[in-house]
From TrEMBL:
Domain of life according to the entry: Bacteria
InterPro entries found in the cross-reference section: RmlC-like_jellyroll, RmlC_Cupin_sf, Uncharacterised_HutD/Ves
Originating species: Bdellovibrio bacteriovorus (strain ATCC 15356 / DSM 50701 / NCIMB 9529 / HD100)
Pfam families the record matches: HutD (PF05962)
Official protein name in the record: HutD-family protein
């Protein structure tokens, strides 16, 4: 069973994280669940249990976000019509950043949405999230300066080295290198690049 595979490609460790293996966790406020893709536990004793956490959640109703004191958050809508956060629209594939200390009210624009979120400690890491698309039957080569990179697939099929990801799967790459991303399908590929580097 192909749960997780690791290969070394140009001295880079590439992990393919299948959506079926994500750990389902309850929201901090108890109003839903999130699929935890990956996280890094904090290396120091503090009120922050982890340095960062990448996850995806199905939001089925309007509700307030959980408070994460001392963290920053990056959030995007992967599927669905979008959200309104504190009266500001967040449309599909847009990325917003806000403080985990903020009291954030979340309203659905239409029906349920799936989001992608990164929570990170700004005292230990810097991070960014970018949305990209790749035309059918094409490829691109990216330079990866950060220590940890994630490629989360929103739509289509993505191939890196000898591994192919489907929608909601995620590649994790570590160490500096270049990586070639291939779209071998007849539809446009949509994905997110999440970059994390320690301070």
């Amino acid at each position: 069973m192909d749960i997780l595979r690791e290969v070394f490609f140009n001295e880079v460790m590439i992990q393919l994280l299948r959506s079926s293996t994500y750990q389902r966790m309850p929201w901090k406020n108890g109003l839903g669940v999130t699929d935890q893709i990956d996280l890094a536990l904090s290396e120091i004793k503090s009120s922050q249990p982890y340095s960062w956490r990448l996850s995806s959640a199905l939001v089925t109703a309007s509700n307030p976000f959980s408070i994460f004191e001392g963290y920053h958050r990056l959030l995007s809508v992967v599927q669905g019509d979008g959200l309104v956060l504190n009266q500001r629209p967040l449309l599909p594939f847009q990325v917003c950043e806000f403080s985990g200390d903020d009291h954030t009210d979340c309203q659905l624009i239409g029906s349920a949405v799936r989001d992608l979120g990164l929570i990170f400690n700004p005292k230990t890491h810097q991070a960014r999230m970018q949305f990209h698309s790749l035309p059918a039957m094409s490829e691109t080569v990216l330079s990866l300066p950060e220590e940890t990179q994630f490629f989360y697939l929103a739509k289509g099929r993505m191939r890196i080295a000898d591994q192919t990801a489907a929608a909601q799967d995620c590649f994790k790459l570590t160490h500096e290198t270049q990586v070639k991303i291939q779209n071998t399908e007849s539809e446009t590929l949509a994905y997110y690049q999440i970059s994390l580097s320690p301070l």
